[in-house]
Amino acid sequence: MRYQLELFFTALGFFTRLPVPAWVPWSPERLNHAARYFPLVGWVVGAIGALSYLVLALILPPSLAVILSMAVTIRATGAFHEDGWADSCDGLGGGWEKAQVLTIMKDSRIGSYGTVGMVLMLLAKAAALIELGADGDLAVAFALLVAHPLSRLASTSLIHLLPYVREDETSKSKPLARRLSGTELAIACAFGLLPLALLAPLEALGAVTATIAATVWAARMFVRRLGGYTGDLLGATQQVTELACYLGILVAWNFI
Question: Within 10 A of 138 (CB to CB), how many other CB atoms are there?
């Protein structure tokens, strides 16, 4: 049990800026095995976002509460996934050949594609959450609690299904380049899917369907362009599928 707790804290420390106990050891091998708990990290981030929104909505208009709660979650994660999305937009938008795409994505500077992609992604997520708020504050809170774990499960599935394409040993995501075992994948699926119980059946179906569609689309593009995934592409997948989850819930409302 202690080892499993250490793996969770390893994942939490890698994917967020939240403090973890000093007694938790770190190694690339532990990070490798911690992939099973990436969706559980989403529970923490989603809870931070949901609680922030519910508190802010008591004193501010819903639109401002959404934007500020997004800022809180970005602060908690250090914009880890947003950075991957921006780098992926720059690389896939500005590069043609595999080597060129990988070089652009590794550049710490943000370009035109990354800037536009980041702005549109944040605007789309904010607009979707504001629309969800029309059904009450709990609708936004539940969407956050569902989307963060589910989107991280989507990224984890790519680790399991696709090859890692960067060959340089300096990549910070190199330790993640290992397929999950059946047990590890089952654990990840459990933590990624359990929060769907917070939604109505059609809402849950819409969220899952949209997330799967976005994940398949992303995986096909990554394989076609690069032959597999990188750490930045995992971050991009999390962002795309988080948005897809919100959109899936909104589409489901048309049938409720």
Answer: 14
